[in-house]
Design a protein that fits this description.
The complex is a heterodimer of chains A (54) and B (581). With 54 residues, chain A is mostly helical. Chain A has two helices and no strands. Chain A has a domain of 35 residues. Chain A is rod-shaped and about 55 Å long. Chain B has a single domain, classed as Orthogonal Bundle (Hydantoin permease), CATH 1.10.4160. In chain B, helix 7 crosses helix 15. The longest helix of chain B has 35 residues. Classes of the chains: A mainly alpha (54), B mainly alpha (581). Chains A and B meet through helix 1 and helix 2 of A and helix 1, helix 3, helix 10 and helix 13 of B.
Chain lengths: 54, 581
């Protein structure tokens, strides 16, 4: 395999795999945060929670 | 305006939702179409155009569809006619949405047939049915005999029907179980199996030694990833790459929107959209690109593998790969079963998704129980699936695949982008996407979604209309060297006397459109919807007034009329929220 092809493959795979790891890590972190600080209006929708003056 | 029939459906977990969304997107195309397209369009040039298309077309469409879906869900509209009507207060909106019912239904009818091929070949691999057929001509004959019911040279006529019923049965069962206990569970089981099978196959293929012609499988990767800028000036390469991105993410089908409709405004869609798209890309680029082409290159040489890939994706998967498995030093049958097994899992998670918009339509608008709707739709899909099998030789299936599964998707995508980004307005769309979001999308994407994506889509649609749709419609899309006057479709000659079935397939498409148009009209009349008013927004326990502090009593009868609905927060027509402070 030529160096150019290997580099292009590495860049492509790094982009795809890196974005996947980043997105799932962020999702898991967000889940932890949401679990740690439960929304008092959790059973209500965001639509109701935002004050009219926001 | 009276509310729709409530639905208690919801996703059990966020990971489950993303796996289900990714399962919907990951299909046969990731492992069959992608490597074929990459090989047929110059490898490196194609990959560069592919990644640019992903950023300009794929990701924006993913966010737009999630946004449309979740907004529809606020009014308990899990189907495209309702979602379009929620975006555009015009009587035509709901009828435009017919495309979001016809496409998934038609694709479901024939996709389950394609899926049954993978199940059959999983068994054939384990049982060694094709062992000994080591040339492409022999394997092609084996496949043709399976596809054409009248050709009993390698298979009894009942074998394809058996695998079809074995294949569609689980699809309907999962669908009837609902979102959380059916679709989500399937995704949580099916997707990991798919990835494990794909990783094992990838490792096996890449560790194969050089074949008889001395070519290593790494030469296949070399072909795909060789940086080559020469093809970037070719419109064909760009359109092939954009088309692949379009198909692989399952946009334009109406299924992503239905899945997203079960989310609330406190749920994130921005980050989840990225996670879904990139999971699909991992399955496609990292795994899909590292199995079929490298294996074919090792056994047939670079030029041989390119010839196979250019002859069609199914030839790569069903003709070339079985030969490769037979040549493997050990475990060929197991690896063969894994290959077709992973295609089956990729197929079933997609086929289940295809039926959900139709189930949602009948469940929400007519109050028909999900189980009944699922089995009824499944039964109808069986009837038309059997018809496509009986008439396969005529090109009946490929006709549906072209009009519903190819051209129709682009039409649908153009309509939804225009409705969401232009009619609903970019500001509202942008705000809507950021409700409950875990990340903030780069502002540049607002411009891309408003201008670049629709223009890109219109170019693709226009190109296809001229180069493919018109010749296909007039049956003049013939391969080179065919005698004048022959009737052809999508590069294949239609056998004599079979053109009538091609016309029948088109007639049925028109009939499906007419049927769903009538059903939409009946639903709107029955439920008393006003085309110029908002639907009633639905909270966890029923409809509520925007800005209210307490939710309405869920046990109280909800007779809320459109003119009672006043939103103190929002612009006229109760559009989305202002950004959170």
């Amino acid at each position: 395999m030529s160096t150019g092809a290997l580099l292009f493959m590495l860049v492509s795979w790094t982009f795809v795999l890196g974005t996947m790891v980043w997105s799932f890590a962020k999702i898991l972190k967000s889940q932890e945060r949401r679990a740690a600080t439960p929304d008092p209006d959790d059973d209500m929708t965001a639509y109701e929670r935002v004050p009219p003056t926001a | 305006m009276p509310e729709s029939k409530p639905s208690a459906e919801a996703w059990g977990s966020r990971i489950g939702l993303i796996l289900a969304m990714a399962g919907n997107a990951v299909g046969l195309g990731n492992f069959l179409r992608f490597p074929g397209q990459a090989a047929a369009n110059g490898g490196g040039s194609f990959m560069i155009a592919y990644f640019i298309s992903f950023l300009l077309l794929g990701l924006p469409l993913m966010w737009i569809e999630w946004g449309i879906g979740r907004r529809g869900g606020r009014f308990r509209k899990g189907h495209i006619p309702g979602m379009f009507a929620a975006l555009w207060k015009h009587p035509a909106a709901k009828y435009l949405g017919v495309i979001g019912l016809v496409i998934p239904f038609v694709v479901l009818c024939y996709y389950t047939v394609l899926m049954s091929w993978t199940l059959a070949y999983t068994w054939f691999s384990l049982a060694g049915n094709y062992w000994g057929l080591t040339t492409q001509a022999e394997m092609a004959g084996f496949l043709t005999s399976y596809q054409n019911i009248s050709d009993a040279s390698a298979h009894e006529f009942w074998v394809p029907f058996l695998f079809f019923f074995l294949s569609i049965g689980p699809t309907i069962y999962v669908l009837s179980r609902g979102i959380s206990s059916g679709i989500e569970k399937l995704a949580k089981i099916g997707m990991p199996i798919l990835f494990v099978f794909a990783i094992i196959l990838m490792v096996r293929v890449l560790t194969l030694g050089p074949g008889e012609n001395g070519v290593s499988p790494l030469q296949g990767l070399e072909f795909i990833y060789k940086p080559d800028l020469s093809g970037l000036g070719s419109a064909k390469v760009w359109l092939a790459a954009a088309g692949q991105i379009f198909f692989t993410l399952s946009v334009g089908m109406g299924t992503l929107q239905t899945y997203a409709s079960y989310l609330s405004t406190k749920d994130d869609i921005a980050l989840s959209g990225v996670a879904t798209a990139i999971t699909n890309e991992t399955a496609e680029v990292v795994l899909g690109g590292s199995i079929a082409i490298p294996a074919a290159v090792a056994f047939f040489g670079v030029s041989g593998a390119m010839a196979v890939a250019q002859s069609g994706s199914f030839n790569l998967g069903f003709v070339a790969m079985p030969i490769v498995f037979q040549e493997m030093p050990f475990g060929g049958r197991i690896f063969g079963a894994m290959w077709f097994g992973l295609l089956y899992f990729a197929g079933i998670t997609s086929s289940v998704a295809m039926a959900t918009p139709i189930v949602a339509f009948f469940e929400e608008e007519f109050g028909i129980d999900r189980r009944k709707t699922s089995w009824t739709i499944g039964g109808i899909a069986v009837v038309f699936g059997v018809l496509t099998m009986l008439l396969f030789e005529s090109g009946f299936l490929w006709e549906w695949d072209y009009w519903a599964g190819t051209f129709g998707l682009a039409v649908m995508a153009v309509i939804e982008v225009i409705l969401y980004m232009w009619v609903f307005k970019p500001e509202n769309a942008w705000r809507s996407m950021h409700l409950g979001a875990d990340i903030r999308l780069p502002s540049l994407y607002k411009f891309i979604m408003t201008y670049v994506t629709p223009v890109f889509l219109l170019i693709i649609l226009g190109w296809w209309a001229v180069t493919q749709a018109w010749p296909t419609l007039t049956l003049t899309d013939c391969p080179e060297g065919v005698v004048a006057g022959a009737l052809c479709s999508q590069g294949s000659v239609i056998p004599e006397g079979m053109a009538v079935y091609v016309h029948l397939s088109r007639l049925l498409l028109v009939a499906f459109i007419a049927f769903f148009l009538v059903m939409i009209r009946i639903a709107w009349k029955k439920n008393g919807y006003d085309d110029y008013a908002d639907f009633i927004e639905v909270g966890p326990d029923g409809p509520f007034r925007a800005g209210s502090v307490t939710r309405p009593n869920p046990n109280a009868p909800h007779v809320v009329h459109a003119h009672d609905y006043v939103s103190p927060l929002l612009p006229e027509h109760g559009d989305d929220l202002p950004e959170r402070p």
